[in-house]
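FYI - complex with adenosine-5'-[phenylalaninyl-phosphate], inputs then prediction.
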Amino acid sequence: MLEHKINDIKKQVQSDVLEIKNGAELFELEKKYLGRKSEFTNILKNLKDLSPEERKKVGELANRTKREIEKIIATKKQELDGAVDLEKERIDVTLPGARRGVGHLNPISIVRNEIEDIFTSMGFEIADGPEVETEFYNFDALNIPADHPARDMQDTFFLKDDKLAMRSQTSAMQARFMQKHKPPFRIIAPGKVFRNEATDATHEHTFYQFEALVVGENTNVGNLKHIAEVFFSEFFRTDVKVRLRPSYFPFTEPSFEFDITCTMCGGVGCKGCRGGGWLELGGAGMVNQNVFTAAGYPRNKYQGFAWGFGFERLAMMKYKIDEVRLFHGGDLRFVKQF
Ligand code: FA5
């Protein structure tokens, strides 16, 4: 009688377990058949009331069956665990891969990296300075008189405290660097500058310049021209000649407008250079002695040259871009072309 019951329970477990779909259901099944209040536990508890022979027989069967039921449950548990893992790890190798968006350098950064590479290969150091600048470094130390129009609100972004301004040229780095270093040295100072001007295809209010500053006891215009020709030939990967035209900047004496042979026609004359064969690039000159004295150097002991060029204009020439506002416009269709 009891033996039948035990065998029935086992059969019941065998058939019930087939319906189990998850751990919670399996837990319930285990409780039902082996739990404290289960029929099976009850049988085991009452074994003591049987005669010794019967107790031995039924006891053996009950214990064996209990182990078997435990095994059925353990096997099911393994199966369920395995199934969960498989589900988690399932991959459909035929699906197209998830494309990761890769960042892109803005052409300004590309140009900046290239400029820095060329100059460091020529033994230049790279100097960095603040974008919020004092009037002293942006104007006074550069020999720019108090009544110079560049100091007007229309040209320069002054901050609330009007002794501070967003620097309007990287030349502001000249006195900063000189105060802390003794010649000879050669540096470039690349960075962002700001001007309060109406924008058009060739003018931005925020743009990048790089200053070159070379100071020694005998540095001369020939050095300026040579270094510039080496740099521009490397940068444009073509033989570039430099032309200096007289100009005026308060912080250089003499001062020059700086032209290079047209990179599109090599100087013969084309549409890009309006037939002239030359492209205007920026300002340059020999450092004015007043700048040296403002930085704490003795007058007439040193001489040096400086120039300031715009990154955007260089990038425009290199990549034949005809609109400066594209660089900071945030249009991915533009940036992704580089
Ligand atoms: C200067 O800023 C002088 N500091 C350059 C200099 C340095 C002269 C050292 C002598 C010695 P200028 O204002 O011309 O000069 O600007 C230099 C270059 O910056 C220009 O040739 C041009 O390439 C770029 N630039 C000027 N204004 C803008 C603008 N609004 N948008 C884009 N690029 C500009």
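The chain has two domains: 2-89, 107-335. Residues 52-89 form the longest helix (38 residues).
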